[in-house]
Amino acid sequence: MPGKPVEMNGMTGWLRRLFPRAHATAAGLPSLLPLLLPLFCLPWFFSLPGVYLFDDYITPLNDPASQGLGAFLAQLGATIRPLTKLTYAVEASLGLDTVDCRRIVQIAMHAGNGVLFLLLLRRLVPEHRQDMPLLLAVAALYLLHPIQAEKVLAVAGRPTLLMEGLLLGAMLAAAGGRYAAAMLLFAASLLARETALVFLPLLAMLLPASRDRERWLLALVTVLVVGLLAAVPRYRALFDFSFAARDVASSCIQQVSALPLGFSLYFAPWNLSIDHGEHLAASAGDPLFLGGVLNYIFLLSLACYGGRRGRLAALWILAALVPTQSCIPKLDALTERPFALALPGCLLCLLWLGRRIVTARMPRPVMAGALVATIAVLAVATATRSLLYRNESAIWKDAMVKSATNIRPHLNSAALLIGEGRTGEARAVLLRAWAIDPFDAELADALQHMQYQQLLKENDQ
Q: Count H helices, E strands: the chain?
């Protein structure tokens, strides 16, 4: 037995001498694997050729600051999210303001975010640093999950997409000791989307304990940028819009109750919708609301007692969800973008839990097979979801099927049918919406108009 290792080493050395080039290539494969990461973005290209949808008509199509560099400079100081608006303005000035061009830009940005996430994983999960296939698979889950559709394919989702990339860059710089770069990137993320402010504790945690000076500088930079944004009247108007004439208590209950539904979308991508309309909690005693409270309790407990890795994961998820799923009133209690933004934290949490639970009981080949199968399923789901973004009528029909309480998909679908002259089908859609909410004045007017148009058509016949 003592001679066996020598024999194996001798055989290995003989193979190295016999196939030196092949051995060198195999040894270099782990370092080349990150170059394959952008390939996982290919299913998103099924959205081309596409059309503008939903919030895209507000931003960038009808936004004054997004119409070109001259318009941006004229609106500078009056517009919100100036860095994001600058990207729209540059596209408009270069003639790249078609939906296809903008989606390609966003898919490229998403691929870049995936590379940054992979590099950050190597920093934050040192025990897996040499296990590049595992880290690549986790980054592929991030790139491929169809919950990212609203962030990647909706042009109006760019503020979240750009903010996330800048935050990943800031965290990577902080973890690598480049503190000035981290501060500049974090300041830029605030200019891309103001809710980046909630990620400040996470970034501060990545600074070493001996870097109190950098923490104070980071806080000072944040205060200066937030003060600059607060001086913009549009931000104050947005704040007033959020709280004016809204039932804050009811909105909070619905937003917290949306947490279990939002997290379930990670495992049920067939329930994704451009405009959700699920039944949400109406009172604090509803099981759905209590489930949302338990979600927050778990995340807060992990942030306090989960160790460095658990705290990082929990703080990321909380920072993604708190601005939109807590106490700030909003029209839509369940939207996909915050849960897409929480995905990196969830994947980091999965790695943290997996090291403690899964890897101890599950053989590595089984785990690898499960990851490959999951990636394949997500690739198909993302391609299928992307196809819907090519057709405005198809995506609203999809939302109608999934909306038990929301009449907006029905109204938008009916408007498209009216434009196509299909008044009978539009009337049927409006009647379905009437059954959901018979007291909506806008819907009543639309239904009466459709009945009038149908009468005129019957008279002509």
A: 23, 0
Residue 210 falls inside a structural domain: yes
Considering the domain boundaries, does residue 82 fall inside one?
no
Q: How far apart are CA 365 and CA 358, in angstroms?
A: 12
Same domain, 238 and 367: yes
Asked if 319 contacts 202 with a C-beta cutoff of 8 angstroms, the reply is yes
Please indicate, yes or no, whether residues 416 and 334 belong to a single structural domain of this protein: no
Model confidence pLDDT, tens digit, residues 386-427: 999 999 999 999 999 998 888 899 989 988 888 888 888 888
C-beta separation of 287 from 260 below 8 A:
no
Residues 151, 40 share a domain: yes
Instruction: List the one residue out of 361, 362, 357, 355 whose CA is nearest residue 138.
Output: 355
Q: Alpha-carbon distance 24 to 121, whole Å? A: 26
Whole domain around residue 451: which residue ranges?
A: 407-460
Measured CA to CA, the distance from residue 349 to residue 340 in angstroms comes to 15
pTM given for the model: 0.87
Q: Residue 126 gets which letter from DSSP?
A: G
Question: CA separation (Å) from 246 to 194, 251, 260, 408?
Answer: 22, 8, 23, 19
pLDDT tens-place string over residues 48-62:
999 999 999 999 999
